[in-house]
Amino acid sequence: MxxxxxxxxxxxxxxxxxxxxxxxxxxxxxxxxxxxxxxxxNCIVNAVARIIDRGRSGxxxxxxxxxxxxxxxxxx
Length: 76
Fold this sequence. Notes:
Number of domains: 1
Number of helices: 5
Number of strands: 0
Strand content: under 5%
Helix content: 55-70%
């Protein structure tokens, strides 16, 4: 089995915080990988995954902000 990607590790570093899990209403199962988090129905998990994914793909900070902001507006 292959090791975790840098994106997976970044995602888990942010989302495995116990207080954030309680506040966000998600389980550790939802943040095992960046791919899984990108398809999560939980807005917090999905938004963090989008920030990591788009940042790693070379998007500018303003592009990432705009995309995540639009995602959150349409899903909260």
